[in-house]
Specification:
Layout (H helix, E strand, L loop, with lengths): L6 E4 L5 H12 L4 H9 L7 H15 L1 E7 L2 E11 L4 E9 L8 H15 L4 E4 L6 H9 L16
């Protein structure tokens, strides 16, 4: 099944709750925050979903948040930031509704996000992805991204 092109626009405050549920559902199978809960339990009483909600509130206030609409509803989203002096953009999140994954919506959203950042002055774009997120890594390689480093996420209780 081929995806229809997305209509990409800046997110509005009214989009927040839909974005929040889409992102949490989309990242549920792959997020390291869920693995953290399995190892340490909820942090200060907050499970990974609650922590993602807090993260998304901050993202919505501080970052460029775009949504992709298809068939009258939100199908994908991205969040990013631009460091103007270096012309380096950072894509923080790229999420697609679970039932629309693996149909090209992520590719459309990624391309639309990059176009938007380029129009804002970006000349370079950076993103991070877990090494075991095979589908996303395949997408990024296919879109011309090159791996430049790997890092380990360490955690401990204090």
């Amino acid at each position: 099944m081929n995806a229809v092109p997305l209509q990409i626009r800046p997110a509005a405050p009214a989009d927040f709750s839909r974005i929040e549920s889409m992102v949490i559902e989309s990242f549920a199978p792959i997020t390291w925050a869920r693995k953290l809960d399995q190892e340490f339990g909820p942090l200060n009483g907050l499970d990974w979903r609650a922590r993602w909600s807090l993260r998304l509130e901050k993202i919505f206030q501080e970052q460029i948040v775009l949504v992709g609409e298809a068939d009258g509803g939100l199908a994908a989203m991205s969040s990013s930031a631009l460091e103007r002096k270096s012309a380096l953009a950072y894509i923080d999140l790229l999420a697609v509704e679970r039932q629309r994954q693996r149909h090209g919506y992520g590719r459309y959203m990624l391309r639309g996000t990059i176009r938007h950042l380029e129009q804002m002055g970006a000349k370079y774009v950076n993103l991070d992805c877990l090494t075991d997120n095979d589908h996303a890594n395949e997408l990024y390689r296919g879109e011309g991204f090159r791996e430049v480093a790997r890092h380990i996420r360490w955690f401990r209780e204090i």
